[in-house]
Design a protein that fits this description.
Layout lengths: L5 H4 L3 H8 L3 E6 L2 E13 L28 E6 L3 E8 L6 E12 L1 H7 L12 H7 L16 E4 L9 E4 L16 E4 L8
Length: 195
């Protein structure tokens, strides 16, 4: 399938977060294609969003990739043990991103399960840290183009229900009232995949 074009990532972040639901995340690892349907995302709205890494204009070596143009990966490390994959959105100077919180594995499932210690398919990539472990995504992927040859997002070949739940983001109580903003998008469980 065709990779999503750069113009897709330059849209408003909330729009990108919602439209990513049902698309396919692809990772080429050691020449092997690993893929899954994006089932959960969260939008982070830059300098005015207390939950965003660039809140109040924060600009560090760590967040610099978010300050550039959309269409690249922003990978960060949390709790001293996990990586999380984000898609940078908007134009340069608008440091916003979408966190990919979960995928439904469709290709390379056994490899993903092995990377996750043999865990069941339903649990292999249903969380941001889990999907990075399953797809072997680490800090090395930070800043790479999503139009390149090792990590990208494409339209989904199989039939996917587009029923989406919209809820507040989770795990960001520190963000005050922003924790209640409806910026989390979740694919309803009614999904038809030819796997």
């Amino acid at each position: 399938m065709k990779k999503l074009p750069l113009s897709f990532y330059l849209q408003p972040t909330k729009t990108v977060a919602k439209k990513l639901i049902g698309k396919t995340l692809v990772r080429i690892d050691n020449g092997i294609r690993l893929a899954g349907v994006i089932s959960e995302t969260e939008a982070y709205l830059g300098v005015g969003d207390p939950a965003c890494h660039t809140f109040n204009g924060r600009r560090t070596a760590h967040t610099e990739v978010m300050w550039g143009p959309g269409g690249v990966a922003y990978v960060y490390f949390i709790y001293g043990m996990h990586f999380c994959l984000n898609v940078v959105t908007r134009k340069s100077g608008q440091p916003e991103a979408v966190l990919i919180r979960g995928i439904i594995p469709t290709e390379g499932i056994e490899i993903m399960q092995k990377a996750r210690g043999g865990i069941t398919r339903s649990q292999v990539s249903n969380g941001p840290a889990k999907l990075c472990q399953a797809l072997n995504i680490s800090r090395q992927e930070n800043g790479i183009s999503l139009l390149g040859e090792s990590l990208w997002i494409e339209e989904t070949v199989n039939s996917v229900s587009k029923r989406i739940d919209i809820t507040p983001r989770i795990g960001i109580d520190y963000a005050g009232t922003a924790a209640k903003w409806p910026l989390r998008f979740v694919l309803k469980t009614s999904v038809a995949l030819n796997t």
